[in-house]
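Please, structure for the following, as tokens.
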Amino acid sequence: MNGAHAKTGDDDGVSAHQEQTRRLVGAMMKLTGHSATGLARAAGLTPSTINRFMHMPVRHTLSQRTMLALMTQTFLAIKDRPGQALDPDALAELTPAIAVYERGILEMVPEVAAVIAAAKAKDAVHAGPADACLPVLLGSTQGVNVKAGDFAQAPLKTPRPSFLEGDARAFALLMPDAGMAPRFDAGDMLYASPARTLAGDKVDVVVEGCGGGFTVGSLVAATADSVRIATLSPRARHAFARDKIRGVYRIVGVQRLGG
């Protein structure tokens, strides 16, 4: 993919993945009051798996299944605690990952729905100055208009990476499915910029529909009448009439959130 990895800006995708996952686990430890060992045991996991990942130089990261177990246990642990007793910074750190795991969490423990909703609502309060944050969209997000720079209805926010400073219409999108695997996994955070040119080879893009919704793929061709993109899993091509879309925006970075 053309562009930089968020935060690190280097070519080591595994390191970027590990850094973000460790931050998420650290936030869960703060919220629950558990050590890495305690959190793992409470989630029914082998403690050494989490300890090694958090404290030793390993080349792997945690799987989606492991992260789902940790997230589920975290929300179970805090569901009956008053909001003022929760670490706001840790909660803000965890919030961007909620959309990735929310469905799985609620399928297993629907009783945590209220605390998840409260965490998402608090995100707007603790996000910081508007120019320090980036709107985070989902594939199904409605009510935003990237072309017009209207992100008032964006469901989440995340810290703005340095390579998008001053880019007023830049945004992040949580990869909604496995359509671009192995290049992007479901749950990866993709950074897109309407200000960047679509010129070049192997350009990955986000297509914004006129009625809402976002599609990710590799740009095949763009003409005055249509845009064609390709997906990888399964390999397929998709055509969009220009009068049915608002815009096509270049993906300029990726941050791994899951395993």
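Confidence is low (pLDDT under 50) at residues 1-15. The helical segments are 13-32, 36-42, 47-55, 64-78, 88-108, 113-126.
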